[in-house]
Amino acid sequence: MRLEPERGSLRTHALFPPSEAPAVPPTPGSSRLLLSPPPLPEEEAAEEEEEVFLLFCPLSRPMVPPLIPPKIPEGERVDFDDIHRKRMEKDLLELQTLIDVHFEQRKKEEEELVALKERIERRRAERAEQQRFRTEKERERQAKLVEEKMRKEEEEAKKRAEDDAKKKKVLSNMGAHFGGYLVKAEQKRGKRQTGREMKLRILSERKKPLNIDHMGEEQLREKAQELSDWIHQLESEKFDLMEKMKQQKYEINVLYNRISHAQKFRKGAGKGRVGGRWK
Fold first, then answer.
1. What is the pLDDT of residue 74?
2. In the chain, what are the domain boundaries?
């Protein structure tokens, strides 16, 4: 059995035009199923192959209709120069609008920048004024503190002077009674002084009384600087003396070693002290 194409199908259209397509009589059982015909000769076999090739070959692409320009009504003339001029005017108007917007935005930014600079300068001036006011207040406070300190120091110095005067008066009264006893004690001590007494005497001579009750702030600073310089000088002298003492000790040890070495290897008969022993 073989399937036959319907009338008017793609295969029929590929083989024959619609007007020349052969008529296929319908079958009682089925309009499409037919018994296989007897074998065909070579020419009919070739035609059958050609029909199969045409049946399965791809269809050609549909043809695109050509673009047709719009029809211009008769009697009217298109002015391309006018169209170009209008387009140029439109572009120029848009460009001018953009330029105006740009300059307006720039002007606004410049105004904001000027306002910001003015605000910064105003705040800077306010801060400078506040700093000046605080500096004046601090100066006044420091002056009050110095004045109060000087007043207290004067009161303490005055009170101390009164106490010293009272103590001196009491000691003078006591000296009249105990003066003879002190003279006798000094005579008993004798003329010869011990090392401690000499040290105390030298320190008492070098030690100067520090009277700073009547001094102001600047004088106290000068006195402190003077004492600092003096301490620095004493430390320098102490260091020099210690280095000198170390050098002398080293020289003494070297000389002692030389003497010991010479006595140990000295030539001669008899007993002698060599290396701390007698031989």
1. 59
2. 2-56, 81-174
